[in-house]
Design brief:
Number of helices: 6
Number of strands: 13
Helix content: 25-40%
Distance between the termini: 77 Å
Order of helices and strands: EHEEEEEHHEEEEEHEEHH
Strand content: 25-35%
Shape: globular
Structural class: alpha+beta
């Protein structure tokens, strides 16, 4: 069997060189469609101006994600409302890997878990070093290139501060206001600590001596299939949630009110 006939290879396709990169925190920004296409498939509305920066609104219009690489503070801004007068925001610089950002943006498309969130748990599970330092709680990655910190200054509000840097300097940073829902920060920290490598095409590798790379050959159809699988998963989850909300209650399912009425009529 020749290469063109192998599974996943379209007729006439040629493999392209890509690289798997570790740690993901230093892999560079990546393709923003990793974030935007998932949100679009999850029912988010694209409110981007013509030929302008990316802007997307949640179906309930309670969260907006914007990306502008050319603004004075180039990068991502996420702004949300938690109720009457309640707001939160996150500011993430342009070079944050989209796979890490997706920890936050993907979590915005699904309801929070019933379990109490803990931002530090995913970091500890990946052997990050957690400690108090200068009055702040801090976690650093095993290789020392990334951190997550909760800062609580005496003369100001607390905030979540995270980022990554190599020997050439800071690669990216992110700030979350203290009102940011903790399950979102936890989802972000889980992808921050994820040890799996991420893929970057040739010519898009950062100039860092602290990354490890492995060359892989990938066809366009394989890349498209992987991207489509993520979009399909988002559509399926959205469909399931929509139908669960619209479905009538199951017959015979006991409720608190009906149980109380039954007791009163005994």
């Amino acid at each position: 069997m020749n290469k063109k006939a192998r599974q996943g290879w379209g007729p006439g396709e040629r493999a392209e060189q890509h690289y798997l990169v570790q740690p993901r925190t230093l892999a560079g920004a990546g393709d923003i469609r990793h974030v935007s296409e998932f949100l679009r498939a999850s029912g988010w509305r694209d409110t981007s101006p013509s030929r302008g920066p990316l802007s997307m609104d949640s179906p309930e219009r309670t969260v907006r994600i914007a990306y502008d690489p050319d603004s004075p503070h180039a990068g991502w801004i996420v702004h949300g409302r938690t109720g009457p007068g309640g707001e939160w925001s996150a500011h993430l610089s342009r070079q944050i890997p989209v796979e890490i950002l997706a920890g936050l943006s993907d979590a915005l498309t699904r309801p929070p878990s019933a379990h109490a969130p803990n931002v530090w748990t995913p970091l500890r599970e990946q052997n990050w070093h957690t400690r108090f330092e200068s009055g702040h709680y801090l976690a650093t990655s095993p290789d020392g290139t990334a951190w997550m910190q909760y800062r609580q200054d005496l003369d100001g509000p607390g905030m979540w501060w995270t980022g990554a840097k190599d020997t050439q300097g800071t690669s990216w940073t992110a700030l979350f206001t203290p009102t940011t829902p903790l399950h979102l920060v936890q989802a972000f920290s889980a992808e921050l600590a994820n040890p799996d490598p991420v893929m970057r095409p040739r010519g898009h590798l950062p100039h860092s001596t602290q990354i490890r790379t492995w060359s892989v050959s990938v066809t366009p159809s394989q890349l498209s299939a992987w991207q489509q699988a993520r979009v399909t998963a988002a559509r399926a989850a959205t469909w399931a949630r929509t139908n669960a909300r619209s479905a009538p209650p199951r017959a015979g399912a006991p409720t608190y009110a009906s149980a109380r009425r039954a007791r009163n009529h005994r």
